[in-house]
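Need a sequence for this fold. Nothing fancy.
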């Protein structure tokens, strides 16, 4: 279904943001008031922004560097592209808005803006491919140190020309995108599930399961899953990409299941850095056989015991072959390969969810947090 947006932008954003785990934004200009509104209500979301880093824009006030700084301080990821003019908003892999509106007070409140929503799979995939092609061209996330240095440059120019409201001699710090590569990304065979993944990572093994009355705080203390998640020797987590959503599950017994008790944002594995040390194994002997890891951030945990948490078995009973990306693909291709989600879990450290299962898990996880509360842990 396509919806045409002419006004009530914030109302629509509210409706979509509350249902979303991840928000992807392309907006050449961003405003501090609008970013403050976003962070007041949705600071815990996984936010990625592509914008312009032309210092002349900040000098003139058409975009606000304080807004970018506020986002970075809350853990958002921001990259800059030269010559950016498109505006796109993607909520998970469920809904997208293509529009004329920047993420500013003018764009969402004051100006006459027009946009259309996209909900069909092919349309969403094309939007995600476009976003990811620009994201890759951006190369790296802006740091607070870079923002401070840009502020200094702008301040010097303002002191040099105190009465000059516009300026065009400052540098554009954004990356140059290859137009051919960006154009070729649209309509490619990439799918949203290949680009952005929701992954359930298992803690424990078939001979090391926990009871359902175990306290979640104790599991976090023993595993360190608020900061790192580990993979067994010889199985590096190369499947994990930056900004993937990781749900954390403890393998349980009586009955055997996987209790999903946490959620975090992933950072891609660096094989030169993300390996346990001898000192690590002295403190935790289990790390000898789980020596590779990924770093995670913005971790959120359900408060209480494992029996307050979500059952992966329940998810599999709900979705069947549509539970995981692998079994869904096998079912769609009718290739005779495994379509049983339970069998696909054997001797696996984790699994990639299908888009439908990821949405279901997101909704149920948020409900559990509202009901049970969230557990505060040290970063």
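Here you go.
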């Amino acid at each position: 279904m396509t919806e045409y947006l002419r006004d009530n932008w914030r109302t629509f954003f509210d409706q979509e943001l509350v249902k979303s785990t991840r928000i992807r934004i392309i907006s050449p200009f961003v405003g501090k008031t609008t970013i403050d509104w976003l962070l007041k209500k949705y600071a815990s979301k996984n936010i990625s922004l592509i914008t312009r880093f032309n210092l002349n824009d900040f000098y003139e006030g058409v975009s606000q560097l304080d807004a970018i700084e506020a986002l970075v301080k809350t853990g958002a990821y921001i990259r800059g592209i030269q010559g950016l003019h498109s505006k796109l908003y993607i909520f998970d892999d469920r809904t997208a808005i293509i529009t004329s509106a920047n993420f500013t007070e003018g764009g969402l409140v004051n100006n006459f803006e027009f946009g259309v929503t996209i909900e069909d799979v092919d349309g969403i995939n094309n939007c995600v491919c476009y976003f990811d092609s620009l994201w890759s061209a951006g190369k790296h996330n802006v740091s607070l140190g870079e923002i401070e240095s840009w502020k200094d440059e702008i301040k010097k120019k303002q002191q040099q020309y105190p009465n000059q409201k516009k300026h065009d001699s400052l540098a554009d710090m954004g990356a140059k995108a290859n137009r051919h590569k960006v154009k070729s990304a649209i309509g490619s065979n990439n799918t949203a599930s290949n680009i952005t993944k929701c992954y359930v990572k298992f803690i424990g093994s078939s001979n090391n399961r926990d009871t359902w009355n175990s306290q979640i705080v104790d599991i976090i203390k023993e595993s360190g899953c608020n900061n790192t998640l580990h993979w067994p020797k010889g199985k590096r987590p190369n499947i994990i990409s930056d900004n993937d959503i990781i749900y954390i599950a403890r393998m349980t017994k009586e009955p055997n299941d996987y209790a999903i008790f946490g959620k975090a944002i992933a950072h891609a594995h660096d094989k030169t850095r993300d390996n346990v040390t001898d000192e690590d194994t002295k403190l935790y002997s289990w790390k000898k056989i789980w020596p590779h890891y990924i770093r995670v951030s913005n971790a959120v945990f359900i408060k209480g015991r494992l029996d307050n948490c979500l059952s992966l078995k329940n998810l599999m009973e709900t979705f069947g072959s549509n539970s995981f990306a692998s079994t869904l693909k096998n079912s769609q291709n009718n290739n005779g390969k495994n379509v049983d989600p339970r069998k696909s879990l054997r001797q696996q450290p984790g699994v990639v969810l299908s888009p439908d299962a990821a949405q279901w898990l997101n909704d149920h996880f948020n409900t559990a947090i509202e009901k049970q509360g969230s557990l505060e842990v040290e970063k």
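For context: Residues 243 and 323 are 21 Å apart (CA to CA).
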